[in-house]
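#struct-help
A.M.: can someone run this one for me? Single chain, 280 residues.
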Amino acid sequence: MKPILVFQTDFTYKEGAVAAMYGVVKSVDKSLEIIDGTHEIPKFDTWSASYRLNQYIKFWPKGTIFVSVVDPGVGTSRRASVAKTLDGYYIVSPDNGSLTHIKKDMGIKEIREIDENINRLKGKDTEGVNIFHGRDLFAYCGARLASGIISFEEVGPAYSIEEIVEHPIEEALIQDNYVEGIFEISDPNFGNLWTNIKLENFNKAGFSYGDLIHTSVYYGGELKFEEDILFGTSFGEAENGKNIIYNNELMKIALATNMGSFVEKYQLDFGPDWKVVFTK
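D.P.: on it. Structure tokens below:
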């Protein structure tokens, strides 16, 4: 059975970019299965591309090929690559920070730069295009790899894993009855904010389900939100419109408003400048 191809981009469905990529895949091999990861990554946001891929990759069969295209540096000297993880997944992506979380959490065994002389689309009058590597390079190379036309070794030359471009990842501060972290991503549809604080570390600091925890949010050192919030196992433990601290799907601490948007209600966001502090 041939590997599945899973795509994520910042292209949206507002024009034909996604359809063009999928057409390239099917032109290589009509039997290949294509699945959407998401095409709603915030534009140019390689941090979110890295985070979202890490959010779902382990739930797919080993050998699945992920094509991740958030590529603000398209056409520049940034590398176009295929990475092989320690668990046997393949990621076709620009090497621009989009592999950060996979390298840290899963581990990358080998990475190769795509040889455009061999693994770039030809014959469709796109040879002069330098701004759509999602179609002409990543989708095409990913399809050739999935179909078995090329092996991983035939993608192109290997380079050092140490050369992979990475975003800095903030670590939480854990003390007795005190935890300090950041909001590292949002749940955009529901307006929840996810921290970088692992549940096990939150528990070690002395916080337990049922506690009312003093919560402060700062942006650039300025206090933006402060409230005592229930730490619950699920949203419904808070009344409608009330806030709750919960364990998210990645076993990390998060904040939500039950039946509402925590982000919109308080005009908060995520990133390294957004600090959250929990105290008793």
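A.M.: thanks! The domain at 5-163 is CATH 3.40.50.10790 (Rossmann fold).
D.P.: also worth noting: The chain is about 20% helix and 35% strand.
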